[in-house]
Sequence to fold (296 residues):
Amino acid sequence: MQTSLDCIICYMRQARSTGLLATANPLLQRQLLNAAGQYIEKINTDLSPPENAAGLYAVFADVLQDDDPFAQVKQEGNSLALSLQEEVEQRIQAAKDPLRAALRVAIAGNIIVYGALHSFDAAVTIEQCFEREFVVDHYSALREALSLHDKPKVLYLCDNCGEIVFDGLLIKQLNRLGCQVTAAVRESPIINDATLQDAQFCGLDIMCTVISNGTGCPGTPLDSCSAEFRQRFQEADIIISKGMGNFESLSEVSAPIFFLFTVKCSRVADHLTEMQGFAPDFLQGTGEMVLLRQKG
Fold:
């Protein structure tokens, strides 16, 4: 997926939100906006939105003199998700189909964390998560893919902090089915994406092998990833790709990928509609949950 003009507008919004998060100094906030504008002037729209975002946040880090301005947000997300973990896991175990329930939780994980962090009723948010269905539902294809291999090698591409706790609950279900799971996180801090440190804090490394993808990009640009990651990617029987950033960077890659994400912007909704040949009004807007098997 290439970067569009809508993405550029979004980058400016991110400059503003990062400034409000990182500093109370209006001059420094203005510097972030100015720096974003200068960066956007030379942006390569042939790259995916996450790849351009990686360069943008490097600029933000220089302006703020802080390589991880979202550190506190990430810590809060991880801690909150851990406080909900037991309740959510009990709901998954009690479900008629625990794997499907765990998939639903993993996709909606960032909504659970976001809602609870903003003083929503966590119990209500969790209940809504279990009631929501997939607007694109390739669950039967995933079940079939899992059945084709004895101890299938699954590469699980993680996304954000907080929700990696719920990724762990899905990985537990995959382990129960005999899968050999490797989880991949970011090499270095970028926005609120999960790193090895976050995975260890949330106990993900106890459930499966955890590696970094070798990049500080909020997605998975294969050409920039480490040799170890690319080998794992090539050898995987099934790749589970969590989050919109991973979808944006891998949507045109031919591989045994199952994308799990919540649609959060109209550009991604349009891209999904185009690549799958859906009717123009198939997606009713943002907030839809997707379980999509990659074509090819």
